[in-house]
Amino acid sequence: VLPAPAEEQNGTDGAKAPKVNCEERNTTGIDRFTLQILNVSQDLMEFLNPNSSDCTLVLFYTPWCRFSASLAPHFNSLPRAFPTLRFLALDASQHSSLSTRFGTVAVPNILLFQGAKPMARFNHTDRTLETLKDFIFNQTGIEAKSDVAVTEEDWEGPLPSVLTKGIDWLLLFSVLFLAGFVMYATIRTESIRWLIPGQEHEHQE
C-alpha cells in the first residue's frame, strides 16, 4: 500500500528528499546573521569550500539595476531566516569573469552552491522573501524561521536598495566597437580609393 502524501513528506525515507543535501553550519557563537558582499578584489572561489557539502546562496547583482535594488531588502533578510546557510552577494560588473563562468547573463541572478559547485538557479520573476524561502526549502529541505520578516534595517543594507548611477559597460563597449568599426571601414575605403585607376594620377602631382 502506498503511503499517503502527508506521511510521505513526514517520513524519513519519503520520496520528497531534498535535491541538495546541505551540511548545516554550526551557528554557536554567531550573534548576527548577515549577508556578506564581496569587494572587487575578493574571489568568490575563496569563499566556497570545494571539499565541503555546506551550502551558500550567491547573488549576482549590479547597483544600478532596479530589479537588484527591489530584491535587496528581501535578500538582506534571508540570513536570519536560514542561519545555518551562508549568503554572499557580488557586483556582476566587477566580477565579469565569474558572470561568464556561471552564465549569469542578466541580473539579479541567484545561484545555490554546494561547496564550490552550482546546484540550482532561482528562476522566479517574483523575487520576495517568501519565494526565496520556498526556493531554498524546495532545494534543500531546510525550513525557514517563521518569525523573520523584511525590516527597515533590511532596506538600508548591507545590499543597497537605492539605485546608484553607474556606467552601462556593455552599452559603452558596443558604442566604442561601432565607432571603431566605422573608423576602420572609412580608412579601408580611403585606401581602396588610392588603388582605383583614374584616381591614381590625382595624387602623383
UniProtKB/TrEMBL annotation:
Coiled coil: none annotated. One of its GO terms (biological process) is cilium assembly. Keywords: Membrane, Transmembrane, Transmembrane helix. Pfam families: Thioredoxin. GO terms for cellular component: cilium. PROSITE patterns: THIOREDOXIN_2. The chain crosses the membrane at residues 169-187. Residues 1-141 form the Thioredoxin domain. CDD domains: PDI_a_ERp44_like (cd02999). PANTHER family: THIOREDOXIN DOMAIN-CONTAINING PROTEIN 15. This is TXD15 protein. The lineage of its organism: Eukaryota, Metazoa, Chordata, Craniata, Vertebrata. The gene is Txndc15.
